[in-house]
Amino acid sequence: MANQAVGGSHRAAPVHTDPEDVSVQTALSAVADPVRMTLIRELAGSADWTRSCGSFDVPVGKAALSHHFSVLRGAGLVEQRDEGPKRVNRLRREEFEARFPGLLDLVLRGDTAD
């Protein structure tokens, strides 16, 4: 019952993918979505483990936000842990950069081809 949340409901610990196990297609797909780009950029500007999932200003509901974080975890970009009732996040900048040199910098620069 270590993952028991407030109110008695159970929440499974998040599963994280090692960036070394991520294909370039998965990485590109993860960073191509505008909502996920916003999450990545906001995490890059925050100290590790200071941003809870609900603290991001994105135009999606809770279920969609959960999906976006799942995609980011699956691409090796984000690590999450539970702290009491909150799930907090960190950008796995160094690990992802080692696997895909320069890709995260391109995302964080925010260049558009419009």
From TrEMBL:
One of its GO terms (molecular function) is DNA-binding transcription factor activity. Gene3D superfamilies: Winged helix-like DNA-binding domain superfamily/Winged helix DNA-binding domain (1.10.10.10). InterPro entries: ArsR-like_HTH, HTH_ArsR_DNA-bd_dom, WH-like_DNA-bd_sf, WH_DNA-bd_sf. Residues 1-21 are annotated as: Disordered. Residues 16-111 form the HTH arsR-type domain. This is HTH arsR-type domain-containing protein. The lineage of its organism: Bacteria, Bacillati, Actinomycetota, Actinomycetes, Kitasatosporales.
